[in-house]
Automatic annotation (TrEMBL):
CDD domains: KaiC-like_N. PROSITE patterns: KAIC. Gene3D superfamilies: P-loop containing nucleotide triphosphate hydrolases. Residues 1-227, 229-461 form the KaiC domain. This is non-specific serine/threonine protein kinase. Pfam families: ATPase.
Length: 479
C-alpha cells in the first residue's frame, strides 16, 4: 500500500537502518514472497552465515528451501576445506564484486538481496572506487533483468547517504526506544523514482511469521457515501436531551470526573446498536473484559454473548507494546473488515498518557476521527476530568475534535451524591440546554426530567428551591 503496488521491477533498491531495525527480516520476506510467485531468489550475505540466516527464518516458521544462499562471511578458520570461504579483509573490493556477479550469473535469479553494503564499504580504498563498483553492479543487475534489494546498516561516515543518488528507491527503517515497554519500529520511503508512494513515517511490527506495516492514515482517501441519519440510545429522555439522538458520521465526547457514568452511557449506545442489528466495537484501555461483563449486565447488555456471536468487537490495547499506527489499524479493521457502525474509545486519557514519547498523538487521533466520520461511524470518546466536585478541570482540551460534547457531573442533593447530564455542544443540530439527573438502577440506566428547581448543579453543591419531586426519586418519570 505504501509503495502503491511494490518495488518496481529490474531496479536497485536500498533498505537502510541501524542494526536491529528489521532489515534482514524484511529482505527474507521479500524473497519468500517472490518464491511464492514462482520467482527465483538469491541471498548474498557478507554479514551473517547461512546457518544464522536459516535460524532467523526458522524462528518465523519460514523455510529457505528453493532460495539460493551465497555466503561471503569472514571466518577465523576453515572448518571445511571443500567449501570456498572468502576473507573480505584480505581481498580488494573488485574481487568481492566479481564473486558476487559470478554467482548471480550462475543462479540467474529474478530477485537478489545483498547484505550488506557496509561490508563492501570497508573493502574500498577510497570513496570514488566504492561508488564506481556499486554503479557497475547496478548496470550488471539491470542487464540481467534482476530486481535487487541491498541492505545498509548506516555504520559508515556521514550517514552513508552518498549512494542515494544511485538507487531507484530508498527505504529507511528506524527503531525508537521508549522509557517503558517495547521499542517502536517505523519506516519511510525516502526516495522513489518515477513512481507514486505514500510519504511520511509508518509504524510496523515484526511478529512471528510476518512483518506487519501500518500505513499512516489519510482520512481524505476514505469518503464513501452513507445515510447521515440519527441513531437512538434506546432511552427516550436521553435522545430528547441530544435533540433526537447522535448523528451518523459524527464524534461524541463524554466528559466528566471518574465514576460519573461516562462508560455506562457509551455502553448504552453499544447495546442500542446491537439491538438494531448493527455491529459495535469497544477499545478499552482501562477496563478488563471481566469487569465490563459485570457492569454491562446491570444495563441489560450481554457483552460476553455479543462478543462470542460477533455482534460486538472488544479489544484491550496494550499501550506499552502498541504503536499509534497499529491502534489505527485495529480500529480500521473493525470498521472496514468487520462492519462496525459504533466505535467507543475508552479512554483518551490512558491512550495519551501511555505513550508520552509520541509527539503527534493528537494529530493522529484527529485524522482517525475524521476517517471514522467519513465512514459514517458513530464514534464515542471518553475523557475523564480531574477532580470529583467543585473545581473540575480537563487534563487536556480535545473538545475541538468532537461534534457533540456531553457533560456529566456529580452534585449533592437530599443527603445523596447524585449525577447530572447535559449537552453543551452539538454541531449537527439543536439540542436541549437543560440539565437532567440520571441514575444507574439494576434495571438499567434512567434519565429523569429537567432539574428546574436547582441552581449551580455544575458546581457540585447546588441550591435547591423546589420540592423533592424534581429529583429522580421515583422511576415512573424515567426515560
Amino acid at each position: 500500500m505504501i509503495l502503491r503496488g511494490g518495488f518496481p521491477r529490474e531496479r536497485l533498491h536500498l533498505l537502510e537502518g541501524a542494526p536491529g531495525t528489521g532489515k534482514t527480516t524484511i529482505a527474507l520476506q521479500f524473497l519468500l514472497h517472490g518464491r511464492r510467485d514462482g520467482r527465483r531468489g538469491l541471498y548474498v550475505t557478507l554479514s551473517e552465515t547461512t546457518t544464522e540466516l536459516r535460524t532467523s527464518a526458522a524462528n518465523h516458521g519460514w523455510s529457505l528451501d528453493g532460495i539460493g544462499l551465497f555466503e561471503l562471511v569472514p571466518l577465523e578458520a576453515r572448518l571445511d576445506r571443500q567449501q570456498s570461504v572468502l576473507y573480505p579483509s584480505e581481498v580488494e573490493l573488485g574481487e568481492t564484486m566479481r564473486l558476487i556477479t559470478e554467482r548471480i550469473e550462475a543462479d540467474d535469479p529474478e530477485l537478489v538481496v545483498i547484505d550488506s553494503l557496509s561490508e563492501l564499504r570497508l573493502l574500498a580504498q577510497d570513496q570514488l572506487a566504492y561508488r564506481r563498483q556499486i554503479l557497475a553492479l547496478k548496470q550488471f543487475l539491470h542487464g540481467r533483468r534482476c530486481t535487487a534489494l541491498v541492505l545498509d546498516d548506516l555504520t559508515g561516515p556521514n550517514g552513508v547517504r552518498e549512494l542515494h543518488s544511485l538507487m531507484h528507491s530508498v527505504v529507511s527503517l528506524e527503531q525508537i526506544e521508549r522509557s517503558y515497554g517495547a521499542a517502536r519500529r517505523r519506516l519511510r520511503i525516502a526516495k522513489m523514482r518515477g513512481a507514486e508512494y505514500q510519504s511520511g513515517w509508518h509504524d510496523f511490527a515484526i511478529t512471528p511469521g510476518n512483518v506487519l506495516i501500518f500505513p499512516s492514515l489519510i482520512a481524505g482517501e476514505h469518503q464513501p457515501d452513507f445515510d447521515p441519519g440519527t441513531v437512538s440510545s434506546g432511552l427516550p429522555a436521553l435522545d430528547e436531551l441530544l435533540g433526537g439522538g447522535l448523528t451518523r458520521g459524527t464524534t461524541t465526547m463524554l466528559l466528566g470526573p471518574s465514576g460519573a457514568g461516562k462508560s455506562s452511557v457509551a455502553l448504552q449506545y453499544v447495546g442500542a446498536a446491537m439491538e438494531r442489528g448493527e455491529r459495535a466495537a469497544v477499545f478499552s484501555f482501562d477496563e478488563t473484559f471481566e469487569t465490563l461483563v459485570q457492569r454491562s449486565a446491570a444495563l441489560g447488555v450481554d457483552v460476553a454473548d455479543a462478543v462470542e456471536s460477533g455482534r460486538l468487537g472488544w479489544e484491550r490495547p496494550n499501550p506499552s507494546r502498541l504503536s499509534p499506527g497499529e491502534f489505527v489499524w485495529q480500529v480500521r479493521r473493525q470498521v472496514e473488515e468487520l462492519g462496525a457502525r459504533v466505535v467507543v474509545i475508552d479512554s483518551l486519557n490512558s491512550y495519551l498518557a501511555a505513550m508520552p514519547e509520541e509527539t503527534a498523538l493528537i494529530l493522529q487521533m484527529h485524522e482517525l476521527l475524521t476517517y471514522l466520520n467519513n465512514q459514517g461511524v458513530v464514534t464515542v470518546l471518553i475523557l475523564a476530568q480531574q477532580g470529583i466536585v467543585g473545581n473540575v478541570q480537563n487534563p487536556i482540551d480535545l473538545s475541538f475534535m468532537s461534534d457533540t460534547v456531553v457533560l456529566l457531573r456529580f452534585f449533592e442533593a437530599d443527603g445523596e451524591v447524585r449525577k447530572a447530564i447535559s449537552v453543551v455542544k452539538k454541531r449537527t443540530g439543536v439540542h436541549e440546554l437543560s440539565i437532567r439527573e440520571f441514575r444507574l438502577f439494576p434495571e438499567g440506566m434512567q434519565v429523569g426530567p429537567r432539574l428546574m428547581d436547582f441552581r449551580g448543579v455544575l458546581t457540585g453543591v447546588p441550591s435547591f428551591d423546589g420540592s423533592r419531586d424534581a429529583l429522580l426519586g421515583g422511576r415512573n418519570e424515567a426515560g
